[in-house]
Amino acid sequence: MTEVIRIIHQESRGTVGAPRVQAALLEEGRQVSRARMTRLMKAAGRQVRCKRKFRVTTNSKHLTQWPKMC
Fold first, then answer.
1. What's the pTM?
2. Which residues form the HTH-like domain (predicted)?
């Protein structure tokens, strides 16, 4: 069971937690409680990586043309 959890967790690049892993297992026909899923993930050292929000780093209010020097 831990091996299946590891595969699902790696496929999502570590962004899914116990509820989504549980849903993925349910789609495969395996019924596991969320408490057991959490316990198995903790025992295997699997933690969820937070997805970062997109942040604009450029200034969109800059000049579109260079000022004329002459």
1. 0.56
2. 3-54
